[in-house]
Specification:
Layout: H1 6-13, H2 17-21, E1 26-27, E2 33-34, E3 45-58, E4 61-74, E5 79-82, H3 95-107, H4 128-138, H5 142-155, H6 163-166, H7 175-179, H8 185-205, H9 209-221, E6 226-227
Helix pairs in contact: 1-8, 3-8, 5-8, 5-9, 8-9
């Protein structure tokens, strides 16, 4: 973990469950987390719930989080969508896990199967091939993610901080970018900078990483629904 001190990063990234509660979740008596969702439009009707399992970090351990998401019906077209909760990136694992694994790989100067995960629980799950697929999935939105991450860091909680204040030496490109033949090095660098901004700001401001990940991705996905 070359860019940040690993111990400081572990302190703010050890769990994603508490920050999720801050964005509107209720927890039912049976332990299922229910997200009220965002109605896609006035002509959409509530249409039941969609339950999914979300592997998430809790106290540095990987746990299974059961989440209820609302389903919406558009009567005129009979189309249904569901609104995923902030912090889920449209993949099986939570946004916190995705960010930590991608950052650990891009920040390392070793190959996919040799990088060291931030927490022991992430050594075997997700698989390294899954992490590789995440890179392919998020590279096309790297610049968009970087822009939202930058805006979020600069305006977080009405306490503007300059990037020079948070990153006095600037954010260097990942060491692996200089050593490995990435197919699209520019987008890899943009994705790395977005991850570094969020993680570095969490460390500098002593706020949970999951909260910043949730808010940054919510800015990207705000106002959209997902097809069932």
């Amino acid at each position: 973990m070359a860019t940040f001190q690993a111990e400081l990063l572990r302190v703010v990234a050890h769990s994603g469950l508490a920050p999720l509660r801050l964005v509107g979740f209720d927890v039912r008596a049976d332990g299922v987390w229910r997200y009220p969702g965002v109605r896609p439009g006035t002509d959409w009707h509530a249409h039941g719930w969609f339950t999914t399992d979300l592997p998430e970090l809790k106290d540095e351990r990987l746990v299974r989080l059961r989440v209820d998401k609302p389903r919406w019906l558009h009567p005129a077209t009979n189309r249904t969508v569901h609104t995923p909760p902030p912090g889920t990136l449209g993949v099986h694992y939570s946004g916190l896990v995705v960010v930590l694994q991608l950052f650990a790989w891009l920040d390392a100067s070793v190959g996919l199967h040799r990088f060291e995960a931030l927490f022991g629980a992430l050594d075997d799950r997700p698989s390294r091939r899954t992490v590789q697929r995440w890179l392919t999935r998020f590279q096309p939105r790297a610049l968009e993610l970087q822009q939202h991450a930058r805006r979020l860091v600069l305006t977080y909680r009405d306490e503007p901080r300059s990037l020079d204040m948070l990153f006095p030496g600037g954010i260097p490109p990942p060491p692996a970018l200089r050593r490995r033949p990435w197919r699209e090095p520019d987008s890899v660098s943009q994705l790395f900078r977005a991850l570094a901004m969020v993680l570095g700001a969490a460390v500098a401001m002593d706020v949970p990483v999951a909260l910043l990940v949730t808010e940054a991705w919510w800015k990207v996905e705000q106002g959209t629904g997902r097809n069932d």
